[in-house]
UniProtKB/TrEMBL annotation, chain A:
Keywords: Angiogenesis, Calcium, Differentiation, Integrin, Lipoprotein, Magnesium, Metal-binding, Myristate, Repeat, Spermatogenesis. It comes from the Eukaryota. Its main location: other. SUPFAM superfamilies: EF-hand. GO terms for molecular function: calcium ion binding; magnesium ion binding. GO terms for cellular component: growth cone; ruffle membrane. It is found in: Cell projection, Growth cone; Cell projection, Ruffle membrane. Residues 144-179 form the EF-hand domain. This is Calcium and integrin-binding protein 1. The keyword Magnesium applies. GO terms for biological process: angiogenesis; calcium ion homeostasis; integrin-mediated signaling pathway; spermatogenesis.
TrEMBL record, chain B:
The keyword Transmembrane helix applies. Keywords: Membrane, Transmembrane, Transmembrane helix. This is Transmembrane channel-like protein. It is a multi-pass membrane protein. InterPro entries: TMC (IPR038900), TMC_dom (IPR012496). The chain crosses the membrane at residues 209-230, 280-305, 374-395, 407-425, 445-468, 540-565, 586-611, 650-677. Residues 478-584 form the TMC domain. It comes from Phyllostomus discolor (pale spear-nosed bat). Residues 715-743 are annotated as: Disordered. Belongs to the TMC family. One of its GO terms (cellular component) is plasma membrane. It comes from the Eukaryota. It is found in: Membrane. One of its GO terms (molecular function) is mechanosensitive monoatomic ion channel activity.
Length: 187, 760
């Protein structure tokens, strides 16, 4: 047990430990999970900081993500260029935010970005419709979807500008204590 | 044309902004105001379309990120509220890196004075990419080392403290890694969460948490009571038959299992001359277990309350939670599909509820509903009281029954009856669901829980009353051991019934549901009932540890087996829950239950035992004493004769034994509680006012936008020839819309800074 690993330098591992909510062992475990996704692509030696991106198709096929209705948005939000292809840094970041140690505000920030499909810093009607469609998989009719979205805006829009800002979203999350335990992916 | 006083209003509004910002803002505003007067832009059209074209306006990636981060930090942390907001310039061509740089400088400046632990926490909580966090960390370290070079007299003390905190952090990391590696059942819990979601997972987490309590109690009692007793154990002359595992009597009577076996002497080790006073060890060990359980419960309760307690008047049973609280832990494909279907059903129900919300009931209907509720409560309370009376009657007549029947297995009759009651009556209570109607589904869950809790607590209560008032005073030979045996039998019978229920009952239900009456289909895991059973068993264990020190060990094994049995049964016989179950709130409630009737009841029972009851005369560590507590009194007496331990005697006489001290302590605690309560009330009022302010802000914004629209329309109608000018100007609406956007968030930010300053 100890510092026998050769994947990262000591400083790199310390930096990862300080910037995520994971311990050293968990970081190594996550690295091997990342490496398993694309063994030919990901080198076993990260001391030289190689620039390697695992394509979205492989990320989306992970057992923790493959049936999640929002997997594409999650990958897009955490990837570097918003296209879903993730480096190791992005990968660690993603699971760090989705782990149980992340505080509520951090999770709320990223949840807001995930539900903001058009990336305009507001969850507008269109974003809500996309969310509801993904959640219900076509079980609801179009009028019901619109009714639901209107109701959500009614309830959560504090400043009545027709869309949810980050503050509205965070305010709403305060009233939903389950958010912390449900916005959690165990790896 | 926007009137002058309206423009002035906007400028005056921002006078209270910190001075550094004011010049920027006011200059921008003057510029914008002039443009307003010319009304040569179309802010309105880009704001009123709430769609994708908005994103074109905030085009520069850096600007957007910087604004996002600012909004995040403004709402997150007070220290970040010190970062000044540098409004972007009207000219969109200059990349706003200066803005971001200034913000980063301020962030670094705020991070430097923090201790390393807080700094790491702050960096982790930043919503930035890994690369940015790493750079931030590097820059902070560089700045810090630069600063420490400048400070020539580096205090040796702070250096020492730094190295100590670094060592502490490293050891904490090692410890958490170690705990993680021996953490039980991680993979199993992941599979359960993946298939059934967080609500069912909460039951298994609760079970694991209770297991930790029992492991700790066992380790403590084993090291301090059981092992010393083993060194002076007498030979066991009784016969061993297999029935002992169920009755707990017979061979087990003379083992370390029961109180009666323990010696009352001071064990003296031959070689080293170390004295080990068994009486004190017994009392102190049990006290230590209970005190650590108490603190652990209080701490957990406080954490859960802080995270999950919401003010009931701002709680909304709305649809928003259903939409935004998708359970990300579910990973199984079929479970996801099922959850999506269930969510759709719930949403449809919620929509139809909303349509029916306005239907008022007639007086007649209200009265009928009320009387049905009342009748249900009367019946359920009556049944609970009847069960208690039956148990008491059975317990009282147990002795004669036993003497007349002479069968060693006959002692199991009482536990059998109690377990039957615990099995049958909760299911009887759930029948009431058919007749009672509740407006809010949450009320129904709470009512069922309260009825079940009342039943279980009253049964334990009546049994404790019986044990302490009848058995202890009956003059039996070793009444503590008798009570210990009773508790052991109760626990074991409860365990056997749970096993049977899981293996037979749930299995049969599945067969009935899938083959015979297919409309029933698979059942759902009843989390509340199962958690209550766990709480009931844990209460018995806490009471029984005094009389049967090996009980935590038995409960440990029980819980271990229960986990696997429940897991297998869950996978085979159950389907995922169809309704949203508010896991966090329920868990808070259950932990509160574990503390309030359960643990406090245990403390009361043990207090009565130790202070009021006479120990049996010829068995156990306290034999011959008039009360259990007299061992402490005699110890204090012996200590007071030794000069070096007088401080212990002083503490005992003036702090623990003195009424005045407790009186003053209680008074202080009450005063502090009252003050905190008043502060909370004040904050609630503040929240309400701020909420109203936000709504008013929105209305102000709408009002201004309407005014601008009207003005622009008036302009258009007045000067049709300047339409070409407008079209050209329309092509760069960006910066001005951006300004408007900025101004709105500025005003919000300013207000939040003001509140932050007023709160500080």
């Amino acid at each position: 047990m100890g510092n026998k690993q050769t994947v990262f330098t000591h400083e790199q591992l310390e930096a990862y430990q300080d910037c995520t909510f994971f311990t050293r062992k968990e970081i190594m475990r996550l690295f091997y999970r990342y490496q398993d996704l694309a063994p030919q692509l990901v080198p076993l030696d990260y001391t030289s900081c190689p620039d390697v991106k695992v394509p979205y198709e492989l990320i989306g096929s992970m057992p923790e993500l493959k049936d999640n209705p929002f997997r594409q948005r999650i990958a897009q939000v955490f990837s570097e260029d918003g296209d879903g292809h993730m480096t190791l840094d992005n990968f660690l970041d993603m699971f760090s935010v989705m782990s149980e140690m992340a505080p509520r505000d951090l999770k709320a920030y990223y949840a807001f970005k995930i539900y903001d499909f058009n990336d305009d810093d507001y969850i507008c009607m269109w974003d809500l419709e996309q969310t509801v469609t993904k959640l219900t998989r076509g079980e609801l009719s179009a009028e019901e979807v619109t009714l639901v979205c209107e109701k959500v805006l009614d309830e959560a829009d504090g400043d009545h500008d027709g869309r949810l800002s980050l503050e509205d979203f965070q305010n709403m999350i305060l009233r939903a204590p389950d958010f912390l335990s449900t916005f959690h992916i165990r790896i | 044309m926007l009137s002058d006083d309206q423009v002035n209003e906007i400028i005056i509004d921002i006078e209270n902004v910190p001075s550094g910002v004011q010049s920027h803002l006011s200059s921008n505003l003057n510029l914008a105001a002039k443009m307003l007067k010319n009304s040569s832009f179309s802010v309105v059209s880009s704001i009123s379309d709430n769609d994708v074209t908005d994103s074109q306006i905030i085009s520069h990636q850096n600007n957007k990120k910087a604004k996002q981060l600012l909004r995040f930090s403004a709402s997150l942390n007070e220290s970040f509220a010190q970062t000044l907001h540098c409004p972007e310039h009207v000219d969109i061509d200059t990349p706003c890196t200066s803005h971001e740089n200034i913000q980063e400088q301020k962030l670094i400046a705020s991070l430097i004075p923090m201790t390393s632990r807080e700094r790491i926490k702050a960096i982790r909580n930043q919503p930035r990419t890994m690369e940015e966090k790493r750079n931030l960390r590097k820059m902070v370290d560089k700045e810090k080392s630069k600063q420490s070079h400048r400070i020539l007299e580096l205090n040796c003390c702070t250096q020492c403290l730094n190295s100590i905190s670094l060592a502490y952090r490293r050891s904490k990391n090692c410890l958490s890694e170690l705990l993680d590696s021996i953490s039980l059942w991680q993979k199993t819990l992941k599979v359960i969460g993946g298939k059934f979601g967080t609500s069912v997972l909460s039951y298994f987490n609760f079970l694991r948490w209770l297991l930790k309590f029992n492991i700790f109690s066992f380790i403590v009692t084993f090291s301090f009571i059981i092992i010393p007793q083993f060194t002076v154990a007498e030979r066991n002359t009784l016969q061993f038959t297999g029935l002992e595992f169920f009755t707990g009597a017979g061979y087990f009577h003379d083992t370390v299992m029961y109180y009666g076996f323990y010696t009352n002497s001071t064990i003296q080790h031959r070689n080293s001359g170390v004295f080990y006073n068994m009486q004190l060890a017994y009392l102190f060990t049990i006290a230590a277990c209970l005190i650590i359980c108490l603190f652990s419960l209080l701490f957990s309760m406080a954490t859960y309350f802080r995270n999950n307690f919401i003010n009931p008047h701002i709680y909304s049973r709305g649809i928003t939670k259903l939409i935004f609280c998708w359970d990300f832990t579910i990973t199984h494909e079929r479970a996801v599909k099922l959850k999506q279907k269930n969510l759709s059903t719930e949403i449809k129900e919620n929509l139809s509820e909303i349509r029916q919300e306005n239907i008022k009931l007639t007086l007649n209907q209200q009265l009928t509903r009320l009387s049905v509720h009342l009748a249900a409560w009367v019946v359920s309370t009556g049944v609970a009281i009847a069960c208690c009376v039956a148990v008491y009657y059975l317990a009282e007549n147990n002795l004669e029954f036993l003497q007349s029947h002479r069968n060693p297995g006959a002692v199991l009759l009482l536990p059998f009856m109690v377990s039957c009651i615990n099995l049958a009556v909760p299911r009887f209570y759930s029948v009431f669901k058919l007749v009672e109607h509740y407006d809010v589904p949450r009320q129904e869950v709470y009512v069922v829980l309260i009825r079940n809790i009342f039943l279980k607590i009253s049964i334990i209560g009546i049994l404790c009353y019986y044990w302490l008032n009848i058995v202890a005073l009956a003059g039996e030979q070793c009444w503590e051991t008798l009570i210990g045996q009773e508790i052991y039998r109760l626990l074991l019978m409860d365990f056997v019934f749970s096993l049977t229920d899981s293996f037979l009952g749930e299995f049969l239900r599945r067969i009935v549901g899938t083959h015979f009456i297919t409309s029933l289909s698979l059942q759902e895991f009843d989390i509340a009932r199962n958690v209550l059973e766990l709480i009931y068993a844990q209460t018995l264990v806490w009471i029984g540890t005094f009389f049967c020190p090996l009980l935590p060990f038995i409960q440990m094994i029980t819980l271990f087996i229960m986990f696997y049995v429940k897991n297998i049964s869950l996978m085979m016989n159950f389907q995922p829950p169809s309704k949203a179950w508010r896991a966090s709130q329920m868990m808070t409630f259950f932990i509160f239950l574990l503390f309030f009737p359960s643990f406090t009841g245990v403390l009361c029972t043990l207090a009565i035992t130790i202070w009021r009851l006479k120990p049996s005369a010829d068995c156990g560590p306290f034999r011959g004493l008039p009360f259990f507590i007299h061992s402490i009194y005699s110890w204090i007496d012996t200590l007071s004769k030794r000069p070096s331990y007088l401080w212990v005697v002083w503490i005992y006489q003036n702090l623990i034994g003195s009424v005045h001290f407790f009186f003053i302590l209680t008074l202080i605690v009450l005063i502090i509680t009252y003050l905190y309560w008043q502060i909370t009330e004040g904050r609630k009022i503040m929240i309400r006012l701020l909420h109203e302010q936000i709504i008013n802000e929105g209305k102000d914004k709408m009002f201004l936008i309407e005014k601008l629209t009207k003005l622009q329309d008036a302009e258009k109608r007045a000067n049709p020839s300047s339409s070409t000018l407008e079209r050209r100007d329309m092509e760069e609406p960006g910066p001005l819309h951006g300004w408007e956007h900025e101004a709105a968030s500025d005003l919000r930010f300013r207000r939040s800074v003001q509140e932050g300053n007023s709160n500080a």
